[in-house]
């Protein structure tokens, strides 16, 4: 069971992420509030992966704040501690690099991430592959959607061995996504 302090930290992280992402929407046609995405990632970790480690769950809620909002490393460290900051940094792209390089680096870095960061990355890819097939980003061609699936599969190849249930879920979601997109 969580301690009262852990419950408080989780709720603070949820509130913090909602505030930071408040003006952002997901890329899909449904234009969902961005916060739906980190909530989905933490839900997948909890339900499918049976992850109960608090820094992992808190970092999952915060996983896109450094990369996609004005959040600073100092802010995350002072509010949530060094371990959570490190996990969020591990799953964040370096936005100073070109997009194609960032995508290649995700594949190259995946096997070298900490186990906790690998869990977050895997749940993130499950959520994104589901979204790409069920609520496709506006303006993406069929080829781009299929290329996204191939890339996500390549990233996840470097995460194998971290959590069998999450990996099996990824495989099922990916297979389903290809069926949907290939008709
Ligand atoms: Zn994400």
Largest sheet: none
Strand content: under 5%
* Secondary structure: number of strands: 0
By DSSP (H or I, 4+ residues per run), the number of helices equals 10
Query: Poorly predicted ranges (pLDDT <50, ≥5 residues)?
Result: none
**In CATH, what is the homologous superfamily?**
Hypothetical protein af1432
Structural class: mainly alpha
Order of helices and strands: HHHHHHHHHH
What is the total number of structural domains? Answer: 1
Q: How does this structure look, described?
A:
The structure is a single chain. The protein contains ten helices and no strands. It has 183 residues and is mainly α. The protein has one domain (4-182): Hypothetical protein af1432 (Orthogonal Bundle). The relative contact order is 0.13. The structure holds zinc ion. Zinc ion is lined by residues 37, 63-64, 124.
Helices and strands in order, then pairings?
Blueprint: H1 4-20, H2 36-47, H3 54-62, H4 65-68, H5 73-80, H6 82-90, H7 99-109, H8 115-134, H9 142-157, H10 164-182
The structure holds zinc ion.
Label this structure with key terms.
single chain; 0% strand; Hypothetical protein af1432; mainly alpha
Short description:
With 183 residues, the chain is mainly α. It contains ten helices and no strands.
């Amino acid at each position: 069971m969580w301690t009262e302090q852990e419950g408080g930290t989780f709720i603070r992280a949820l509130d913090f992420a909602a505030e930071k992402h408040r003006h952002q929407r997901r890329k899909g046609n449904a234009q969902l509030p961005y916060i739906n995405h980190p909530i989905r990632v933490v839900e997948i970790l909890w339900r499918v992966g049976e992850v109960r480690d608090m820094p992992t769950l808190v970092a999952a809620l915060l996983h896109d704040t450094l990369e996609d909002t004005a959040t600073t490393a100092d802010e995350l460290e002072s509010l949530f501690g060094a371990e959570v900051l490190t996990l969020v940094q591990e799953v964040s792209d370096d936005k100073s690099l070109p997009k194609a390089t960032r995508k290649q680096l995700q594949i190259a870095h995946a096997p070298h991430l900490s186990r906790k960061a690998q869990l977050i990355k895997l749940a993130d890819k499950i959520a994104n592959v589901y979204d790409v097939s069920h609520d496709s980003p506006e303006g993406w061609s069929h080829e781009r959607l299929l290329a996204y699936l191939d890339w996500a599969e390549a990233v996840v190849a470097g995460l194998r061995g971290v959590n069998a249930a999450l990996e099996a879920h990824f495989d099922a979601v990916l297979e389903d996504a290809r069926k949907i997109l290939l008709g």
